[in-house]
Specification:
The complex is a heterodimer of chains A (475) and B (218).
Chain A (H helix, E strand, L loop, with lengths): L7 H9 L2 H23 L4 H17 L1 H14 L3 E5 L2 H14 L4 E4 L3 H5 L2 H7 L3 E4 L2 H8 L16 H12 L11 H18 L2 E4 L3 E3 L4 E6 L3 H7 L3 E7 L3 E2 L2 H15 L7 E5 L13 E7 L3 H4 L15 H4 L2 H6 L10 H12 L16 H5 L6 H14 L5 H14 L2 H18 L5 E2 L6 H4 L4 E2 L6 H13 L1
Chain B lengths: L1 H14 L8 H12 L13 H11 L3 E5 L5 H11 L5 E4 L15 E4 L8 E4 L3 E3 L4 E5 L14 E7 L3 E2 L2 H10 L7 E5 L4 E2 L7 E2 L6 E7 L2
Parallel strand pairs in B: 1-12, 2-3, 2-4, 4-7, 5-8, 7-12
Antiparallel strand pairs in B: 5-6, 6-9, 10-11
Classes of the chains: A alpha/beta (475), B alpha/beta (218).
């Protein structure tokens, strides 16, 4: 998809007054946040597991070339193919080439963030293939022609009645003419429509939560079972994965699984955790005859070893966005690309360019919740600050804020002047607001006062009060 | 294609301040980490592995029926078919461990991979994990993967001796059995479900609507 992150402010304003979206976002707070808390409380070893998980990823990243090659060797030994792509274009061409060689018409897809990153659906459709998302949430937004608004619950912004209308509109051609208004009916109708697609697909595309160097396996974690129907029924299985997904051993995956599901949905283990290793074996009665893994870089190797290195530890659980007050307020679409919330605010500028996504690092209160809940201990607020610094250095910030910051830095480096100016400002503000004690409007503070009053200072600065108190206690 | 490969590897090495591949000594030690994997921290679970497994499976809506011996499996499956009105046809995995089951003549039993319209499958399992309540199935001619996903109902025949405490114990068991990685290893933890419509949990999304484990004492 084309990034629309440059429209962030406008999109966020629209999102804030969208009643359906606001209602849907309420489910994030009551669902994900509460479930994660309960799951973490039940596991006394959680923090220790987190440290261990983080150590595994860090070790792998320090030796990333070695583990990727080891993975590649094992995949080939079991009869699979490995492809490398530096850019989304290269990855798309590889996938399209495999589909063409297979003489494919219909391609089923299980949720893959790398698939979104390389916009594989659009590429498949415009090359004449029928591409069908099979994760229920992804299917819903594919029908609605919208991007995902959450990395693990892509249709979280959709209400039940919106889904009813979508299905009614798109399923009539399969003979489903009655409106399904309840969850079981909706899920069942999608199950039946998609079942036919699964059984007649020529290629199945999945992502990967992990790649295992020890065995050449790709691992997916799902609850619906669509990933497994996608990688078992069609004759060709393609896996698209970022290069940072590799870990050394099955033991290491086991550790990561313990923090992934708990952080994501609050489950101890997702319903289906599946290791795929090569194509079907001789005498197997089912499974694909071709197994292809496409490894995508797309800027990841540029993050290694620099200030954004930690981002490569991300296991895409979504905990950061679930706990982010900004994400909770505006949902995912305002972020304008496939990765949303705090992790998206770091990844989008790095992958599509800071000039395209300049508002994202600033759409953050720096409250630190994301870092606190991140199972991989990724310092997201620090990286957002780093991106702000880059913006300032690249002169990508507004003149107003540059002048204001310059004035501020001039002032704070001169304590005596600072105290005098602030003392004067505080006193005059207090005098101006002497009757109401607060301001309804103030010059240069419209962003604050447009939605709430600004409390007025009480007349004396903290420093002044502190000095007086100390003098008092000494005498 | 190979250009991109060299490019990606070169970028990684440059970022890690290395001119080429890892020195042999380090590569050998990493190779050792791969060929002799060690378990990381395993969370403590109670002393009774079987009881823990049963509790965990129950907590993810898996049904469990305990029987004394494998010949009782037929009755349990017949009752399951009846109580969910699933007709009298079933597909059984061509697994030698399931051969001794005395199916009633009333039932149409086929031994094959699954097809789109199958209502109920019966499979064995390679292991089960007490920590999470997961069943572990390895794909093979005896255990086609489609049986785990296409039918409405999935019945798994598990022996108590197959239950291990942690996920890692499955890998240890596979290595000591000289069991290579098959095409698919499925960890199945309850029936298929989705929460994609307003975060309401609904079972039977794309995979089985019900998961029923028949736990055989010996």
């Amino acid at each position: 998809m084309k990034p629309t992150s440059s429209q962030f402010k406008k999109s966020a304003r629209v999102a804030l007054v969208d009643p359906d979206l606001q209602r849907a976002m309420g489910f994030i707070r009551s669902g994900f946040v509460e479930n994660r808390r309960a799951a973490v409380e039940k596991l006394p070893e959680f923090d220790e597991l987190r440290r261990s998980a983080r150590g595994i990823k860090e070790h792998t990243l320090q030796n990333l070339d070695f583990y990727l090659q080891a993975f590649e060797k094992r995949v080939k030994a079991d009869g699979g193919q490995v492809y490398w792509a530096s850019t989304p274009e290269e990855a798309r061409d590889i996938v399209l080439g495999i589909c063409r060689r297979a003489g494919a018409k219909r391609v089923t897809k299980a949720k893959s963030m790398v698939g979104e990153e390389i916009a594989i659906n659009e590429a498949l459709e415009s090359a004449g293939f029928e591409a069908i998302e099979t994760d229920l949430g992804e299917y819903i937004i594919q029908l609605a022609e919208e991007p995902p608004s959450h990395i693990i619950a892509p249709a979280v912004h959709k209400t039940k009645s919106q889904i009813t209308e979508l299905f009614h509109k798109h399923h009539a051609r399969y003979g489903y003419t009655e409106r399904q208004t309840e969850v079981p009916g909706l899920v069942d109708e999608a199950r039946q429509v998609l079942r036919e697609k699964f059984l007649s697909a020529d290629v199945g595309i999945t992502g990967a939560n992990f790649l295992v160097a020890e065995t050449g396996s790709t691992v997916i974690v799902t609850n619906e079972g669509n990933g497994d129907l996608t990688n078992t029924l069609p004759p060709v299985h393609i896996v698209t994965a970022g290069i940072e997904k590799v870990v050394p051993t099955r033991e290491d995956v086991s550790t990561l699984l313990r923090v992934l599901a708990r952080s994501a949905t609050g489950q101890e283990m997702s319903v289906y955790t599946t290791f795929s290793t090569g194509p079907r074996r001789q005498n197997d009665l089912d499974g694909p005859t071709e197994f292809h893994v496409v490894l995508l870089d797309n800027g990841r190797s540029q993050m290694l070893g620099n200030e954004f290195h930690e981002m490569l530890r991300c296991i895409r659980c979504g905990a950061c966005m679930n706990h982010c007050p900004v994400y909770q307020g505006i949902g995912g679409h305002a972020y304008g690309w496939v990765y949303v919330g705090p992790m998206g605010s770091v990844l989008t500028p790095l992958m599509v360019g800071l000039d395209q996504a300049g508002d994202l690092p600033n759409a953050c209160t720096l409250n630190g919740r994301c870092e606190e809940v991140c199972p991989m201990g990724i310092g997201l607020p620090g990286m957002l600050r780093q991106l702000r610094r880059r913006q300032y250095q690249n002169r990508q910030t507004s003149t107003v804020s540059r002048v204001a910051l310059a004035a501020w830095s001039f002032l704070v480096r001169r304590p005596r002047l600072y105290r005098r100016v602030m003392g004067g400002a505080v006193a005059s503000l207090a005098w101006l607001a002497r009757r109401r004690g607060r301001f309804r409007h103030m010059l240069f503070a419209g962003g604050w006062t447009s939605v709430r009053d600004l409390p007025a200072p009480q007349g004396s600065s903290f420093q002044n009060q502190w000095r007086k108190r100390r003098q008092g206690s000494q005498s | 294609m190979s250009d991109a490969r060299e490019q990606v590897l070169a970028n990684i090495r440059a970022a890690l301040n290395r001119a080429g591949p890892l020195p042999d000594s380090i590569a050998r030690s990493l190779q050792g980490r791969l060929s002799r994997p060690r378990a990381n921290l395993k969370p403590a679970i109670g002393g009774d592995t079987i009881a823990h497994f049963i509790e965990k499976l129950g907590s993810v809506s898996g049904k469990i029926t305990r029987v004394a011996s494998i010949d009782k499996v037929a009755e349990v499956v017949a009752r399951h078919l009846e109580s969910f009105d699933l007709g009298d046809a079933l597909v059984v995995a061509p697994d030698p461990a399931l051969e001794g089951i005395p199916w009633s003549n009333r039932l149409g039993v086929e031994r094959r991979a699954a097809a789109g319209g199958d209502r109920l499958s019966v499979t064995g399992a390679y292991a089960a994990v007490a920590e999470t309540g997961s069943l572990v199935l390895l794909s093979s001619p005896d255990s086609p993967t489609t049986l785990n996903f296409l039918p409405d109902d999935h019945v798994i025949v598990l022996r108590e001796s197959q239950i291990v405490p942690h996920i890692e114990d499955v890998w240890v068991r596979m290595r000591s059995d000289k069991q290579a990685m098959p095409r698919t290893v499925n960890f199945i933890t309850g029936p298929s479900k989705t929460a994609d419509v307003e975060q309401t949990i609904q079972e039977g999304a794309h995979g089985p609507r019900r998961l029923h484990v028949i736990l055989v004492a010996k």
